[in-house]
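Bumping my old thread because nobody answered last time. Still need a sequence for this structure:
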C-alpha cells in the first residue's frame, strides 16, 4: 500500500511539472509574439499647382532624410494630380495620406453652382457670399444631401488612388463658434457667447431637417446656444458625413483619418465637432499651444485628454503641433511631451529649415 501511495504521488508530481512547463512555454510564446507600433512622424505638404515632379521629389527626399514616415499631401482633392505625385513619395518609403478640405470647400467649382448648398449663420448670412473671419471660409451644409454626396464623391476619387494609406479629412466641422483666444485680437473680437454671425447652420436644408425630426424651428429659439437637441443635431450631422466617408474609404481598402480640434469636449464647444463618437481610424488633433497662449505642457495634457476619450475605441491619436514659431529646442521638447502622453505619433505643421535637425535627432 505504501509503494502504491508513493507511485501515485510521483505520478501527480510528473503531471504537475508537465502542466507547469506547458504554461511557461505558452507564456514565452505570447511574449515573443508581442510587438509595438513604432512612433510615427508626419508632415503636411502643400502640392502647389506650379510645382514640378522634380520639386515634389526633392521635398519628399528631405522628409525621408530627416525621419518623416508619413506625408499629408494637399492637392485640393484633385485625384488626378495626387495620382501623379503620390508614387514619388511611396517610392521613397513614405506613407501617403490624401489631405482634403471637407465641409469647408473654398472656391469649389461644383458647389458654387448651388448657392443652397452653403451654411447660413443665425444672422442670415450665407457662406456662399458672406464668409466669417476669412475669405476662404465657404462652408457647405452637412444637412444638404447633394452637398454631402459631392463631398463623398471627392473622398471616393482620392480613395481609388493606388498605394495611398488614407483619405485625410480636414475642416470636418462647422465654422468656429469661438476662435482660439490668441487669434481674437487679430479680428478685433470678444466672444463671450455664441454670436449670431458665427453660429451656423440655419440654412433651409438644416432648418427643414431639424423641424422634421423634432417639430421645432431653431430660428424661433430664444437662446439656441442652450438647446441640447439643436446642438446634438449638428454634432450628428458631422458624424454622418464622417461615417459615410469611412465606409467609402474602407470599401476601397483605405483608412480614414482626420485633422481635429485638440480634444473632444473642446472641439464640441468651439466648432461642434465630437470626434470621439466617429467611425475613424486615426485622428490628428491640432494641439497648437501657441494659438491658445499655452505652454508645451499643454500639448501633453490635451493629448492625454483625447486618449482618455478614445479608450475602448480602435482609433489612434497622433498629435499635431504647429511649429513655425518654435525654436529647434522647443520642437525637441514638444516631441518629447507627445511621446510621454502615449500618442501614436506626432504631425508637424509649418516645418522650417532650422527644425529638421531636432526632428531627425528625436527620431
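Sorry it took so long. Here it is:
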Amino acid at each position: 500500500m505504501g509503494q502504491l501511495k508513493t507511485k501515485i504521488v510521483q505520478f501527480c508530481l510528473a503531471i504537475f511539472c508537465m502542466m507547469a512547463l506547458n504554461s511557461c512555454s505558452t507564456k514565452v510564446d505570447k511574449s515573443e509574439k508581442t510587438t509595438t507600433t513604432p512612433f510615427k512622424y508626419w508632415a503636411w505638404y502643400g502640392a502647389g499647382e506650379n510645382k514640378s515632379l522634380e520639386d515634389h521629389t526633392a521635398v519628399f527626399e528631405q522628409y525621408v532624410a530627416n525621419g518623416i514616415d508619413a506625408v499629408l499631401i494637399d492637392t485640393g482633392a484633385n485625384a488626378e494630380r495626387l495620382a501623379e505625385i503620390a508614387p514619388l513619395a511611396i517610392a521613397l518609403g513614405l506613407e501617403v495620406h490624401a489631405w482634403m478640405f471637407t465641409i469647408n470647400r473654398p472656391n469649389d467649382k461644383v458647389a458654387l453652382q448651388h448657392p443652397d448648398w452653403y451654411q447660413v449663420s443665425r444672422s442670415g448670412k450665407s457662406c456662399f457670399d458672406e464668409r466669417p473671419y476669412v475669405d476662404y471660409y465657404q462652408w457647405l451644409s452637412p444637412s444638404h444631401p447633394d452637398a454631402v454626396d459631392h463631398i463623398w464623391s471627392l473622398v471616393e476619387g482620392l480613395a481609388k488612388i493606388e498605394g495611398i494609406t488614407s483619405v485625410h479629412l480636414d475642416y470636418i466641422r462647422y465654422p468656429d463658434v469661438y476662435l482660439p483666444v490668441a487669434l481674437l485680437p487679430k479680428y478685433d473680437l470678444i466672444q463671450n457667447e455664441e454670436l449670431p454671425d458665427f453660429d451656423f447652420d440655419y440654412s433651409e436644408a438644416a432648418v427643414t431637417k431639424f423641424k422634421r425630426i423634432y417639430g421645432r424651428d431653431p430660428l424661433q429659439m430664444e437662446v439656441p446656444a442652450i438647446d441640447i437637441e439643436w446642438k446634438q443635431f449638428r454634432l450628428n450631422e458631422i458624424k454622418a458625413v464622417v461615417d459615410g466617408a469611412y465606409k467609402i474609404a474602407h470599401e476601397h481598402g483605405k483608412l480614414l483619418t482626420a485633422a481635429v480640434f485638440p480634444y473632444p469636449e473642446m472641439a464640441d464647444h468651439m466648432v461642434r465637432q465630437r470626434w470621439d463618437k466617429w467611425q475613424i481610424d486615426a485622428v490628428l488633433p491640432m494641439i497648437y499651444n501657441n494659438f491658445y497662449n499655452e505652454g508645451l505642457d499643454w500639448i501633453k495634457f490635451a493629448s492625454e485628454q483625447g486618449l482618455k476619450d478614445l479608450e475602448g475605441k480602435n482609433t489612434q491619436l497622433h498629435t499635431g503641433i504647429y511649429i513655425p514659431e518654435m525654436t529647434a529646442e522647443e520642437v525637441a521638447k514638444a516631441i518629447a511631451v507627445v511621446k510621454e502622453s502615449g500618442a501614436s505619433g506626432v504631425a508637424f505643421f509649418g516645418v522650417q529649415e532650422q527644425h529638421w535637425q531636432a526632428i531627425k535627432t528625436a527620431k
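Residues 6 and 334 are 67 Å apart (CA to CA). Let me know if any region looks off to you.
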